[in-house]
Amino acid sequence: DIVMTQSPDSLAVSLGERATINCKSSQSVLYSSNNKNYLAWYQQKPGQPPKLLIYWASTRESGVPDRFSGSGSGTDFTLTISSLQAEDVAVYYCQQYYTTPFTFGPGSKVGLK
Amino acid sequence: EVQLVESGGGLVQPGGSLRLSCEASGFTFSSYAMSWVRQALGKGLEWVSAISGSGGSTYYADSVKGRFTISRDNSKNTLYLQMNSLRAEDTAVYYCAKDSVISTGGWFDPWGQGTLVTVSS
After folding, report:
1. In whole angstroms, what is the distance from residue A99 CA to residue A78 CA?
2. Of the candidates A107, A52, A79, the residue with the CA atom closest to the CA atom of residue B45
3. What residues of chain B score a pLDDT lower than 70?
4. Which of A36, A76, B38, B118 fits a 20 to 30 Å CA distance from A59?
5. A39 with A29: CB under 8 angstroms?
6. What burial class does residue B39 get, using C-beta atoms within 10 Å of its C-beta: 0-12 exposed, 13-18 middle, 19+ buried?
7. Residues of A numbered 14-73 whose beta carbons fall under 8 angstroms of chain B's beta carbons: which are they?
8. According to the model, what pLDDT value does residue B102 have?
């Protein structure tokens, strides 16, 4: 199974400041035949289901604010919130969809400083 | 608008059974794989099972293999999860999620609101 890890477990960021979350997979999720990374990011607010933010590691889902960006390739990925807003307080999960069992990172909780 | 509505959760004794349903609307149901993902209270997300758009291919997490069965009725736009031999560790909110592709192997969007399964005596 591909094990996903995230860091940090939690972070507190001031409004308007940058938040950066790292995600690492135990093996590459880059599919060589199409050069795509099978990695997604989700945001989950309390009492709500997860919401898709990013897929293919760096493609923003329609309607997601452009302050959210994803980067990375192979085994190392990053989600960046360029200017944190109050509504961004949530837990963020990375997930690989390269192979079953599809696996999620343990989550990173973003709060306000 | 794509909508997924789960039902069927509840309190069940260890060793018991439960069948979850997920009614889909707003998209061509048979054209997309579907998954079940669960989340224990205060914990992270765990993928449970997936099924291709035709229903011909199914996949399971090791933790539920042999106990849970995923199925779908494309004529009713409904996804199911039959859960047998339930254990305390199966207690969680169960979400259904639409895959982005027909064959599994895509991202999940959207997710339903979830249904709570509690396994306790």
Report:
1. 20
2. A107
3. none
4. B38
5. yes
6. buried
7. 38, 40, 42, 44, 49-52, 55, 61
8. 85
